[in-house]
Amino acid sequence: MIIKFLLPLVLLSGVLSAQAPFKNEQPVSPGRVLALDSAIVTHHEVTIKGVRVPYTATAGSIPLWDEDGKALAGVFYTYYEREDIKEKSGRPLVISFNGGPGTPSVWMEIGYTGPRLLNIDDEGYPVQPFGMRDNPNSILDVADIVYVDPVNTGFSRPVSKDVPASKFYGVNADIKYLAEWINTFVTRKGRWASPKFLIGESYGTTRVSGLALELQDAQWMYLNGVILVSPTELGIDRNGPLDAALKLPYFTATAWYHKKLPADLQQKDLNDVLPEVENFTINELIPALSKGGALDDAQRKSIAVKIARYSGITEQVVQENNLDVSFNLFWKQLLRDQGFTVGRLDSRYKGIDKRIAGESPDYNAELTAWLQAFTPAINIYLREELKYKTDLKYNMFGQVWPWDNTNNKTGENLRQAISQNPFLHLLVQSGYYDGACDYFNAKYSMWQLDPGGKLKNRLKWEGYRSGHMMYLRKDDLATATENLRTFIRESVPAKGQPAKY
Asked: Which domains does the chain have, with CATH numbers?
């Protein structure tokens, strides 16, 4: 009788805890309706860097309201809070987003920074049985973390189909409503005094770059750090010769990995090869492409030979494409002679197409592998370990289209936020084998954030020998999380230090 009586209240108020009088198998959200305001609390511990860390995990949702206080959606989150820290004012809080823009925060939560890690092999490939293990590299030792699923990703949902999609699905709408939600979350959890960090991956970097300024301007919330993992172009224009040229260093890294470079380059370490290619790209390729049809035959031949040398693609193919080999053609062409394609998000992965012929791969080999590993793991984890019982489908890719990409000024938003806030630091992390958000374009974006060179002591870029989700490779997971720890510690000022130039 208690269960039958309380269920309608759950749907209206949704406020729950792990101590609520429900049987273990009773859903938080019976049917496929989200409990708009819910919280299931469980207690755990993990050993990080040899130190036992007890923590509380809260899985739940917090409503998003309109200007009149009417609920528009429930935003699902998981929040990890270290239990043996009494004073929270100096304890950093990391607010984490992934991208898509239609994906939840599953990728970094159980692949990178969270206390639990999905089962994969040392290079990131799926293994069975699917499931979870402790993450000895989690950053929970130095910061509390909340993972946020934007509307229609994960378990997050609008309250009804009548809510206009324009409230959520666009560059600036996304930033605006998530800033409001973050304000509510920080207020509820009593974290206004904490040093705050945003971390975003892929499209999540567009999101957090815009949020850095929106939180300052609209919520009066100031950050200590922004972390961009595999960043997008952030609305920074690079059409024409720049767009054609900047991808070449990624081509080189991929060709090096697959042993497709000339012998003299192949025998060098990757970190010794890439500076040479970057120099060629900036000082020779961009000027040559800028000439277009005015480039004379001898110059065109010279540039084509070098592109072929650095990309593993034949000079003939380079010439046939006017010195501009597309990403799709590169992924199809590099291993065509072996009958394989290479992955878009991580070109260490190989795929097999129906036909060897063609100009683009049939599918993304790496994404298929990742979905195979992550989907069962997150469903097992949330429902069985964190006890969030629901019949809702966990959307690995939710319907957020059409997405309004107009007026994307997020790179400039981030620059303004850093300029206006002397405490704010930036860390950029890239995988050399990422062809969706390639590492050299990430460097270029960071350079353009600071055209005057006055902020460069607060901007840092790091590269790793893996792809879009560099943390799936065991060695890079250890290195990248340690770099996050260092960044967080160095971005928190000494007690009493003023924010001024």
From this structure: 83-236+372-491 (3.40.50.1820), 241-361 (no CATH)
